[in-house]
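Troubleshooting: if your tokenizer reports a length mismatch, compare your output against this known-good record of 162 residues.
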Amino acid sequence: MTRDSVYIGIVLALVWVVLYGSVTLPIAAVGLVTALLCVGMYRKTITRAQKPDYSAIKLLAYPFLILFQAYLSAIFVIRLTFFAVETELVEIKTELTSPFLRVLLANAITLSPGSIVIDVKGDRITVLWLRKKIEGPHTICAENANRLLCGGMEKLLLKIEK
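Known-good structure output:
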């Protein structure tokens, strides 16, 4: 077992204990055994050619950033409710090359209140999102939409990918 696998097993066991809400020896032992079984099954079913070329340790920051982004988006949507809102389809371009990391980015966008991913094709992600209604002709520039929808999530995933 590699060092990354052991770290992931320990983190999964800690998550098990936290979610269970009680720290006792039997609960920790069951969590550790379950986590190691998950890591072992992953290692047995995924061949070397299928294994991602990014660090699993760096990927552990992903859930925390999703929670942070979801709270920021929720505050944004709450503020939007005081104004007239409209929906808009926006196509954003990502610099991510890994299909798996693109899906993680799309999931993060969908988990953010006020946005839903419609399609992921290549390096393009089509998103339906809420925004403040603007009078007259308007378009949001793709760069601003990318910054607003992806935030720091794409930057984190780019660091993981490299």
